[in-house]
Design goal:
Elements: H1 24-37, H2 39-44, H3 46-61, H4 63-67, H5 71-90, H6 94-115, H7 123-126
Helix pairs in contact: 3-5, 5-6
Length: 140
C-alpha cells in the first residue's frame, strides 16, 4: 500500500453521507442501498419506487417543473414516501434508519417548497410602474 493513499471497500461507497435530504449524490446512494438491501420491496412496489425517484430526479434536474407538479402527482409522491418509510422503519439496519430520516426530511422539504412557492405573475401585475412627466426647464 502506498503511504498517504486511502483505500475503500465497495460497501463503503453505499454508506450514508452527511447531507440532510436526498439530492443528486445522496439520491444515487439511496438507490444503491435499496437495490442492495430491499430488492424484493422494489420489485413489489415498483410504481411507488419509480414515483419517488422521478420526483427526486425532477427536483434535481428542473426545480421549475418540480414546483409545477399537479396535486395528483404530489399525492402520489406522498403515498410513495409512506410506502418507502414503512419498509425502512421495519429494517433492522442502522443505515436504514438514517435513510428513513433522510426520506422523511426530503418529504418535508418538498412539501415546504410546494406550499410556499410564489405565484407566476406577469411583471406588470407585480409592480405599478410610476409615470414620469418631463417638465421643460426654465432658462437660467
Amino acid at each position: 500500500m502506498i503511504s498517504g493513499v486511502g483505500s475503500a471497500k465497495a460497501e463503503d461507497s453505499v454508506r450514508v453521507n452527511n447531507t440532510i435530504y436526498l439530492s443528486a449524490g445522496p439520491d444515487f446512494n439511496f438507490k444503491v442501498f435499496m437495490n442492495k438491501k430491499a430488492k424484493r420491496f422494489i420489485k413489489k412496489n415498483d410504481e411507488a419506487w419509480a414515483t419517488f425517484n422521478n420526483v427526486v430526479r425532477l427536483y434535481n434536474d428542473s426545480t421549475g417543473q418540480f414546483l409545477l407538479m399537479s396535486e395528483d402527482e404530489k399525492a402520489d409522491f406522498y403515498e410513495a414516501v409512506a410506502t418507502i418509510n414503512s419498509k425502512l422503519s421495519n429494517m433492522r439496519n442502522e443505515d436504514a434508519q438514517i435513510w428513513l430520516k433522510k426520506v422523511d426530511v426530503t418529504e418535508k422539504v418538498f412539501a415546504f417548497l410546494w406550499e410556499n412557492k410564489t405565484e407566476n405573475k406577469p411583471f406588470e401585475e407585480l409592480y405599478e410602474l410610476p409615470t414620469i412627466s418631463v417638465e421643460p426647464t426654465v432658462g437660467r
